[in-house]
Specification:
The chain is mainly alpha-helical. The chain is globular, with a radius of gyration of 15 Å.
């Protein structure tokens, strides 16, 4: 696909078509990118590696909805693939403990199924 989007295309993203508001979509994109960066820093990855993951993350959500794919799950998957693309791969057994640690920190500050921003994703999926 062509990765250059017009303003009209951005406003008609799959997430928007699924009822996710502009503010929420922007927040989910920001949170996912921050999460990828936090994991990358914790694993001492080169910036180009986690930037590749962030790029893949944004490209994925240009074609798919946040309602159908949880953004933290996709952030981890995109960083995993980004590591392979940039020839700095990490095994899942090395990646997942860091992810779990970061998510536990998130859970400690929020209750239930809420993410870092306090957004309840069970309600979003319904």
């Amino acid at each position: 696909p062509n990765w250059l989007f017009t303003q009209e295309q951005l406003k008609a993203s799959p997430s928007r078509k699924d009822g996710v508001g502009e503010v929420d979509e922007h927040r989910f994109r920001w949170e996912g990118a921050q999460f990828i960066r936090d994991i990358g820093n914790a694993l001492d990855l080169q910036p180009r590696t986690y930037c590749a993951g962030i790029t893949l993350y944004h490209r994925f959500y240009a074609l798919h909805s946040f309602k159908k794919f949880p953004h933290y799950d996709m952030a981890v998957a995109c960083l995993f693939v980004g590591g392979k693309v940039e020839e700095q791969p990490k095994k899942l057994r090395d990646l997942l403990p860091v992810v779990q640690q970061l998510l536990r920190k998130t859970a400690a500050s929020a209750s239930g199924s809420k993410d870092r921003s306090g957004q309840d994703h069970r309600a979003l999926k319904e």
